[in-house]
């Protein structure tokens, strides 16, 4: 049977989603998939487009790659617009003249920004906000502008305003309607949003109808409004709504809506049965859906219908039934949510309003005539109840208890009325971005996902906008409880506490020894290999004493106890600190001489330092004496502590560098060296956005920009690589260090044992936003304390090896035998590529044979 | 077992740690789990990693049994009997050990 041919016009978010579903399905081998994109690249995450301004690259935003498409056999053509359809011959024509036949054609052409027909709108610095190229143009224009105006105070317009403001422009928003976000918000909500946004320094002009754009006097342009007033600006961004991209349908006779949009039925078929339309170009029940989730739903429906039609010949029952347009987002840092019938247009509906001018919170709840059901809501300034309200509405559930309490702040004693997740039906959609139901989450929990991190990975729930995170966690916890899994977070049998709780206990009680903690808060008289190192690390984080001190030495794990990394044969590797990867030739020679004299296997590490392997216990002090004399310090490669701060060469030598990354890396490494933490910590500093130091794969990543440092947090390489998240931008040196101090100390205090920063942050309720709030806005009022704690650690640093070689009592332990100078006779080596390595078991037998002959 | 041999002084073993002694050609790990004179002695050879490293493990207790965790891969061994808690097939040789006038003696 020959393959069926599917052509997808447009490779945007929805087109890609459709292709991905088809290409990874069990039927994939029966299809040939072609896609054409007018844009110069494959699909990217348009929803996150604004992140481009905060340092995300096109690669970060990409939803797929060319090699992934090649692997899946998807044939793609970029930069080639489809311009013709022959519905009889079933072919399409592209701008470059290609003609291709199809069995089914899928139009996923999205939409384009609407620019009001104002005279003067086509000038150089009049731009729109839809593609990566648009953003590049905006960046370029902003660089030569002082003032910027966004035309349109809707959701996208405010996002655009945020971008202009971040680019340092004096920013204005010009809106035709009497209030901001007129579609989603009521008057009260719009008013508060305006106040908040104006407080941030964005000027809002409502009820302004732009008549023309002419040359300005102070600025590049002047916008003249119908009411006679005017505004001067250097650039203009139009964000006045979107229009479905229905050009092809229009030209080739498919049915359109009165005001545009390609008409589709419940199976996403257009008026031609072999042509489907999905995403923002499609019109269902006379409605365009300008969000990505409904588009994904359409893609799923179309996929099922095509499979039923071409392959299984069983008609698909999955139909598109419209979609909920509720949204929750953060605009210029303000929480805004709109649910269902936000305007109370349902006949007989009634509403509750909560307005707090002081705390700047506005909430309106719209309920049915009988007061029993939630119909809609508007939340501005605080939107925590979004998940609960949305579920009540979507599932048409009775309001539990007093409706007003759904929007009233929780008062002491009275817990906020939450929604018992147990009352939700299994079919309730919890994550709308990825269409994950309560039932699917429960199943994943039953299959072993017992943490938010695992659950996200398995189901994708809460990995889109993140608005459902709290609810997902509730479903998880409830399921765990019903499974009878007592979620035991005790660190071990000796302490009924988590690491974070132990850290609190140590801090509050001011303990300085394991025995004190065990006696006051633990069980038994010995502890074990779990709680001892954990408390060793906690005590070190707070008190920063010499780790081999009596009383502390027994808490040190395998590597720490001899200040080296134990290798498979019981010998150690030695890693001196080479801060920032910078080393003088003299020091390099010392390392070479030591390695040669002791026949140490030598290898360059990933963290820009040098690892010397195969030192026996008794050799460690001698070697370290030489290293310390030559000016080296311990590298803490053995500790759960700061490892390295990798850097590129930066502006001192590199012709692209914008800041001195090496100096910053050295300063950071010297500041945090020796800090004991729940797991190892790695940093990197890049001198420009080319990012040669790979900072975005580190716990703490710093990237230089023309305007200062961008800070990334919570990335890692290793087993489960994770890109770091952009945390703050354009920082000066002091603020950078202040934020890092806070993030690290907060991590040290609150993470679990052996939890990397990535998992720590992913499991934190509220995630990145919460962490930002704690660190940048000091929401817990602990920043001063965190900084003081860090200052103490920095001030009490000592090189553990220097202390050790100066202490003859401590050196006694550094030998294989307490009663003999002999070496361990069990060591055996072979030479490979000019260096030695431990013999394998087989080689050992041969070596012994040789020796005995 | 009359042949007690002194290998070091008690104060050479910091409470909470172990040392290794060469005893009749065998490597013996001696542990002092707390500040008192109670000592334990087992073979220094880790049967899992096949390296002579047991004396460098962390000591403690699990379910009331005083144990050492192998420093390489963290299997637990009962210090009194030498049994491996994870694998009944494996055990460490146990040696008689005592403190006599401040001296640590192996038998
Ligand atoms: C700044 C911004 C923020 C947003 N934020 C959110 C949000 O928070 N939540 C949310 O749900 N949605 C958001 N959206 C909307 C979301 O991005 C869209 O709903 C989604 O991208 C629609 O996907 P699509 O595939 O239908 O269209 P698109 O992603 O626009 O893709 C259509 C593609 O088809 C191409 N094309 C068009 N015609 C042709 C042709 N004839 N031949 C070849 N190629 C063609 C286009 O160039 C384009 O690449 C946002 C949009 C923007 C711009």
TrEMBL record, chain A:
Gene3D superfamilies: 3.30.390.30, BFD-like [2Fe-2S]-binding domain (1.10.10.1100), FAD/NAD(P)-binding domain (3.50.50.60), Sulfite Reductase Hemoprotein, domain 1 (3.30.413.10)
Domain of life: Bacteria
Encoding gene per record: nirB
Associated pathway: Nitrogen metabolism; nitrate reduction (assimilation)
Any GO MF annotation of the entry: 2 iron, 2 sulfur cluster binding
NCBIfam families the record matches: nitri_red_nirB, PRK14989.1
Residues in Nitrite/Sulfite reductase ferredoxin-like domain copies: 567-628
InterPro entries assigned: BFD-like_2Fe2S-bd_dom, BFD-like_2Fe2S-bd_dom_sf, FAD/NAD-bd_sf, FAD/NAD-binding_dom, FAD/NAD-linked_Rdtase_dimer_sf, NasD-like, NiRdtase/SiRdtase_haem-b_fer, Nit/Sulf_reduc_fer-like_dom_sf
Family designation: Belongs to the nitrite and sulfite reductase 4Fe-4S domain family.
Keywords: 2Fe-2S, 4Fe-4S, FAD, Flavoprotein, Heme, Iron, Iron-sulfur, Metal-binding, Nitrate assimilation, Oxidoreductase
Domain NADH-rubredoxin oxidoreductase C-terminal, first and last residues per copy: 326-395
Name of this chain's protein: Nitrite reductase large subunit NirB
Record's cofactor remark: Binds 1 siroheme per subunit. Binds 1 [4Fe-4S] cluster per subunit.
Subunit-level organization: Homodimer which associates with NirD.
Domain called Nitrite/sulphite reductase 4Fe-4S: residue spans: 639-775
Any Pfam family: Pyr_redox_2
Organism in which the protein naturally occurs: Parathalassolituus penaei
UniProtKB/TrEMBL annotation, chain B:
Transmembrane segments: none
Organism for this UniProt entry: Parathalassolituus penaei
CDD domains listed in its UniProt record: Rieske_NirD
Pfam families documented for this protein: Rieske_2
Domain Rieske intervals: 5-106
Classification of source organism: Bacteria, Pseudomonadati, Pseudomonadota, Gammaproteobacteria, Oceanospirillales
Biological processes, Gene Ontology terms: nitrate assimilation
Cross-referenced PANTHER family: NITRITE REDUCTASE (NADH) SMALL SUBUNIT (PTHR40562:SF1), PTHR40562
An annotated Gene Ontology molecular function: metal ion binding
Recorded coiled-coil stretches: none
Keyword terms: 2Fe-2S, Iron, Iron-sulfur, Metal-binding, Nitrate assimilation, Oxidoreductase
Protein name: Nitrite reductase small subunit NirD
């Amino acid at each position: 049977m020959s393959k069926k041919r599917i052509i997808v016009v447009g490779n945007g978010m929805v087109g890609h989603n459709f292709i991905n579903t088809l290409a990874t399905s069990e039927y994939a081998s029966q299809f040939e998939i072609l896609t054409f994109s007018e844009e110069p690249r494959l699909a990217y995450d348009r929803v996150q487009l604004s992140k481009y301004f905060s340092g995300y690259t096109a690669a970060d935003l990409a939803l797929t790659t060319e090699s992934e498409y090649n692997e899946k056999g998807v044939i793609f053509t970029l930069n080639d617009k489809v311009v013709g359809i022959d519905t009889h011959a079933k072919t399409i024509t592209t701008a470059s003249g290609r003609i291709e036949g199809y069995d089914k054609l899928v139009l996923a052409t999205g939409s384009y920004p609407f620019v009001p027909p104002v005279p003067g709108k086509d000038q150089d610095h009049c731009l729109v906000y839809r593609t990566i190229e648009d953003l590049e143009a905006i960046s370029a224009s902003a660089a030569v502008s002082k003032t910027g105006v966004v035309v349109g105070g809707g959701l996208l317009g405010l996002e655009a305003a945020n971008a202009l403001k971040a680019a340092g422009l004096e920013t204005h928003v010009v809106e035709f309607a009497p209030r901001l976000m007129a579609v989603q918000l009521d008057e009260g909500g719009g008013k508060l949003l305006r106040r908040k946004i104006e407080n941030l320094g964005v000027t809002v002009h409502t009820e302004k109808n732009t008549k023309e754009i002419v040359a300005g006097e102070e600025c590049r342009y002047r916008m003249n409004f119908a009411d006679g007033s005017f505004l001067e600006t250097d650039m203009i961004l139009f964000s006045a709504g979107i229009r479905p991209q229905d050009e092809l349908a229009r030209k080739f006779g498919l049915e359109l809506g009165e005001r545009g949009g390609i008409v589709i039925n419940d199976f996403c078929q257009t008026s031609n049965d072999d042509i489907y339309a999905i995403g923002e170009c499609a019109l269902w029940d006379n409605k365009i859906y300008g969000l990505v989730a409904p588009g994904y739903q359409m893609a799923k429906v179309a996929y099922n219908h095509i499979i039923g039609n071409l392959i299984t010949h069983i008609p698909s029952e999955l139909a598109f039934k419209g979609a909920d347009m509720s949204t929750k987002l953060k605009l210029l840092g303000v929480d805004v949510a709109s649910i269902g019938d936000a305007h109370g247009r349902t006949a007989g509906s009634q509403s509750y309003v909560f307005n707090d001018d002081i705390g700047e919170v506005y909430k309106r709840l719209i309920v049915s005539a009988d007061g029993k059901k939630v119909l809609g809501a508007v939340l501005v300034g605080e939107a925590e109840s979004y998940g609960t309200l949305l579920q009540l509405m979507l599932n048409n559930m009775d309001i539990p208890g007093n409706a007003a309490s759904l929007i009233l702040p929780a008062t002491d004693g009275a817990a906020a009325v939450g929604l018992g997740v147990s009352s939700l039906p299994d079919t309730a959609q919890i994550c709308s971005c990825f269409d994950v139901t309560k039932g699917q989450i429960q199943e994943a929990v039953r299959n072993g996902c017992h943490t938010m991190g695992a659950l996200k990975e398995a189901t994708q729930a809460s990995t889109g906008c993140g608005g459902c995170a709290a609810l997902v966690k509730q479903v998880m916890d409830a399921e765990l409880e019903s499974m009878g899994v007592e979620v035991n977070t005790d660190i071990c049998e000796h302490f009924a506490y988590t690491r974070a709780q132990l850290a609190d206990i140590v801090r509050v009680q001011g303990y300085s020894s394991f025995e004190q903690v065990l006696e006051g808060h633990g069980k038994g008289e010995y502890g074990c290999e779990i709680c001892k190192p954990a408390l060793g690390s906690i005590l070190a984080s707070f008190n920063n004493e010499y780790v081999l001190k009596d009383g502390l030495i027994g808490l040190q794990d395998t590597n720490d106890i001899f200040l080296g990394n134990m290798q498979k044969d019981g010998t150690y590797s030695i890693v001196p600190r080479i801060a920032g990867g910078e080393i003088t030739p003299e020091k390099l020679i010392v390392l070479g001489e030591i390695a040669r004299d002791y026949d140490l296997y030598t290898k360059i590490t990933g963290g820009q330092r040098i690892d010397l392997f195969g030192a026996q216990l008794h050799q460690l002090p001698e070697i370290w004496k030489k290293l310390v004399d030559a000016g080296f310090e311990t590298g803490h490669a053995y500790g759960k502590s700061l490892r390295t701060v990798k850097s590129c060469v930066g502006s001192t030598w590199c012709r692209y560098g914008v800041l001195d990354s090496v100096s910053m890396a050295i300063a950071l490494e010297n500041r945090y060296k020796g800090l004991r933490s729940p797991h190892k910590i790695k940093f990197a500093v890049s001198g420009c956005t080319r990012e040669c130091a790979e900072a975005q794969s580190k716990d703490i990543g710093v990237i230089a920009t023309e305007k200062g440092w961008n800070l990334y947090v919570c990335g890692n390489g290793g087993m489960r690589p994770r890109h770091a998240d952009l945390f703050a931008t354009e920082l000066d040196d002091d603020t950078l260090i202040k934020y890092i101090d806070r993030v690290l100390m907060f991590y040290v205090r609150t993470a679990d044992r052996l939890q990397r920063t990535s998992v720590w942050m992913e499991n934190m309720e509220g995630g990145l936003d919460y962490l930002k709030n704690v660190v940048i806005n000091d929401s817990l009022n602990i920043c001063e304390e965190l900084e003081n704690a860090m200052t103490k650690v920095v001030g009490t640093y000592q090189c553990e090896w220097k202390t050790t070689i100066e202490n003859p009592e401590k050196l006694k332990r550094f030998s294989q035998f307490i009663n003999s100078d002999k070496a361990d006779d069990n060591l055996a080596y072979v030479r490979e590529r000019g260096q030695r390595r431990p013999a394998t078991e087989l080689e050992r037998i041969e070596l012994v044979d040789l020796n005995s002959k | 077992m009359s042949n007690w041999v002194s290998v070091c002084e008690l104060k050479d073993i910091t409470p909470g740690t172990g040392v290794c002694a060469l005893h009749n050609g065998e490597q013996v790990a001696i542990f002092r789990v707390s500040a008192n004179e109670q000592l334990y002695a087992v073979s220094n050879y880790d049967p899992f990693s096949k390296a002579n490293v047991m004396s460098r493990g962390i000591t403690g207790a699990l379910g009331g049994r005083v144990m050492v965790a192998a420093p390489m891969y963290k299997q637990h061994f009962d210090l009194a009997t030498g049994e491996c808690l994870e694998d009944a097939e494996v055990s460490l040789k146990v040696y008689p050990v005592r403190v006599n006038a401040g001296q640590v003696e192996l038998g």
